[in-house]
Amino acid sequence: MDLQPFVQWLEGTAGSTAIRESTLLYPIIETTHVLMLCLFLGMIAMLDLRLAGLGLRGVPVSEVAGRLLPWALTGFAFMAISGMLLFYSGPVRAASNIFFRIKMILIVLTGINAVLFHFTIYKRVADWDCDPTPPTRARLAGWFSLLLWCAVVICGRMQAYNWFDKGTR
Amino acid sequence: MDLLPLFKWFEATTIGTVVRESLWLFPVIQCVHLLALSMLGGSVLLMDLRLMGFGLLTQPIAELASKVHPWLKGSLVAIIATGVPMFLSEAIKCYYSPPFWYKMGLLVLATSFAFTIRKKVLASECQSLWRWLTALISLALWTGVAFSGRWIAFY
Fold first, then answer.
1. What pLDDT, on the 0 to 100 scale, is given for residue A168?
2. Predicted ipTM?
3. Rounded CA gap, B11 and A149, in Å?
4. B31 closest CB neighbour out of A27, A37, A154
5. Closest Cβ opposite residue B150 in set A30, A46, A71
């Protein structure tokens, strides 16, 4: 499937040009994206550390998940909206960027990891809720999530550099 | 007092030069800085939310604070350790950047607040009004640090 005509059309729309050429809009959207990272990844990391047996030991896992995930999901919503706006401001370059592509795949993988966790070992959370070190399956889910999200952040940051852009170097 | 000569010296340091002349070093350090930011943000938020009556409510504040404190300190060390070489590599640019000076001022305020008043509030049984106020000031200060930090790239 060739996305090129679509991203070129997208880049030509008025909104895309407006964000790209605004001195304030782009920085504000990008800052929102970074600030919401604290809310989203900060909360996710706390849950992951608890699952990995590294942090918040002794706090029931169901409480950490139940109480922190709503905050994390709120952060995710803001990240997704600001992220889409950032993409919208320069879709041609983003779509061809290797880091952007890897980042999108990694985000899908984090989703699969989360869904697998919730529908398998988390179903039996009552059995291990207060264990300082959760069972292997849960620890693995925590570690996968931590590593995948770190990689997502790294790809997101690297996307701004033009090492592999065609024709810019 | 003119600090420009000092900032020129910062920029000429070995670390500053190595980071500036490398293609990969600055972005890699930036990534670690961002990851440490997430962790710092998480540690700060978890306790500030708790002070405001959200989040892990069944946990006693002081106990939760002692569990979160090592992550706060660790991420603060990591974020400063990565921030310093980035600063050294472009010290003169920072000298002329207003957001840089706001960030440094807010950083001093935020860390001193975290390790004095906020630490006391987390360890004591004070009224909820004071807890609210403490959390609000903490959140405002750290948001200011991150916000102005991001704007060094723009101004």
1. 46
2. 0.90
3. 33
4. A154
5. A30
